[in-house]
Amino acid sequence: xxxxxxxxxxxGEIPSKKVYEDxxxxxxxxxxPTAPIHYLVIPKEHISKLDxxxxxxxxxxxxxxxxISKLAKDMGLKDGFRVVSNCGAQAGQSVFHIHFHMLAGRxxxxxxx
Length: 113
Ligand code: 5GP
Ligand code: ZN
What we know:
The chain is α+β, with helices and mostly antiparallel strands. It has helices at about 5-10, 60-75, and strands at about 20, 25-30, 35-45, 80-85, 100-105. Strand 1 and strand 2 form a beta hairpin. The mean pLDDT is about 95. Bound molecules: guanosine-5'-monophosphate (5GP) and zinc ion.
C-alpha cells in the first residue's frame, strides 16, 4: 500500500527503532509510548485491520503471536504484559495497517488504562 505509514516503515522509507525482524514480521518501538515497553508488532504484508484476517492470511497472524511469546521470554517479562489491537476508528485505531501493541513495565487497569 503506497500511502500506508507502516508499509513505509517496513520498507525503511520512514525510520523506526527496530526491535525484531524476520521474513514476515516487523517489531518496532511506538513513537509515543504509553508504557516503559511499548512495541508495535506488525505483518510485513498489508492487512488493514483485525476483521480483514482470513483463512488466506491468518498464518502471519499466528506467527505474530509466536514472535510475541518469544520476545516476552527473551525479555524476561515474568510480571506480565499486555497485547492490544484496536480495530476501527471507534476502538481507537489510527493507523490502518494491522498492529499489535505489546505493552509491559507497569500495572495495567482493566477494562480501562
Ligand atoms: P492505533 O492508535 O492505530 O491503535 O496505534 C497506532 C500507534 O502507532 C500509536 O500508538 C502511535 O503512537 C504509533 N505511531 C504513529 N505514527 C508512528 C510513527 O511514525 N512511528 C512509530 N514508531 N509509531 C507511530
Ligand atoms: Zn500497510
